[in-house]
Design brief:
46% of the residues lie in helices and 22% in strands. The chain contains five helices and eight strands.
């Protein structure tokens, strides 16, 4: 089965794809785990705000009671954590923007050997069926997760979900399908 995808995905689709790639390790450990978008208010933004408040509190303690080594260490750790989370959030947003700006046509092929995505003028990525850990449907996407340490995930908008599920039903593909769409 070949699916030619000419239309661009939605912002929500790309945010979902970037989020579950960000949470790849957790999903590999527990494929049925509840999925939380990294972009919802409360994910990384709340952590950043909380760390800034903690830093200000530590600064206040240091100014009023003296900057003892424990206060300086706590402030340094808090500042570093804030910086790391802020950079992570920035990089996630940058990846979504990059996907949104990509106008190339994609072709997704499901055959007896596995699943493959061919992005026009780019590298072809294939996951053999024996290397697919599971297929999971999310709110916006149906995604194929590789078992190996490559971290490869091939995602298709749910516009094509029924075609993919029909292919699985007709061809007896022995891959776990997790339908978590909500």
């Amino acid at each position: 089965m070949v699916i030619e995808i000419k239309e661009k995905g939605t912002k929500e689709f790309y945010e979902e794809v970037v989020s579950f790639n960000h949470q790849y390790g957790a999903l590999m450990r527990k494929p049925t785990a509840k999925f939380r978008s990294s972009f919802r208010f409360g994910a990384l933004i709340i952590q950043i705000i909380g760390l800034v408040v903690l830093f200000i509190t530590q600064l206040h303690i240091g100014m009023s009671e003296g900057f003892e080594s424990i206060v300086v260490c706590a402030m340094t750790a808090t500042a570093m954590a804030t910086f790391i989370i802020a950079i992570s959030y920035y990089n996630l947003k940058k990846r979504v923007k990059m996907f949104l700006e990509d106008d190339r046509i994609s072709t997704v092929t499901l055959d007896e050997k596995g699943v493959e995505i061919n992005k026009e003028d780019a590298q072809i990525i294939r996951i053999s069926w024996d290397n697919v850990a599971f297929v999971r449907t999310f709110k916006e996407s149906t995604s194929f997760f590789a078992k190996d340490a490559s971290g490869i995930v091939i995602s298709v908008t749910n516009k094509y979900k029924d075609q993919i599920m029909e292919y699985f039903n007709k061809n007896n593909i022995g891959v776990q399908i997790i339908n978590m769409e909500k």
